[in-house]
Design a protein that fits this description.
Elements (H helix, E strand, L loop, with lengths): L3 E5 L5 E5 L3 H48 L7 H22 L15 H19 L1
Antiparallel strand pairs: 1-2
Helix pairs in contact: 1-2
């Protein structure tokens, strides 16, 4: 017999949670390791996007200052800012998508059934992976 735990639900009632078996434990560990790797990758991309944003701001600041004070702008600053913008956008998008912080228009969500909304979210995820992948 596997041990279980009974937890109260917010809407009333109780939920019974079974402890994982030995076979399920390995699958849980693999999934946990995959989520951990995905989170580390997301954090690395977010840090890269942050560095790109800081570089973009500093180059723009220095370019404007040198242009108006000494009439000698930084050569190639537009190209550098464009490159940093691409790095910022595409590496910052992963965090937005993984945390579901992207822009959503929810016209259908208020009157559609929960299963329909879930299916639309999954279709959106597949289209996002197909488009950006």
């Amino acid at each position: 017999m596997t041990p279980s735990l009974t937890l109260p639900l917010s809407g009333g009632g109780n939920a019974r949670v079974e402890a994982p078996s030995q076979n399920n434990n390995r699958e849980t560990m693999d999934r946990t390791q995959a989520y951990s790797l995905l989170d580390r990758l997301r954090v690395a991309q977010l840090r890269l996007a942050s560095v790109a944003l800081v570089v973009m701001m500093l180059v723009t600041l220095a370019d404007v200052f040198l242009r108006y004070v000494f009439n000698h702008p930084i050569r190639g600053s537009y190209d550098l800012v464009e490159s940093m913008l691409a790095i910022f956008v595409f590496h910052g998008m992963s965090t937005a998508f993984l945390q579901r912080r992207n822009i959503v228009i929810d016209l259908i969500d208020s009157f559609a059934h929960r299963y329909v909304v879930t299916a639309l979210i999954r279709i959106s995820d597949v289209l996002t992976i197909f488009t950006l992948g």
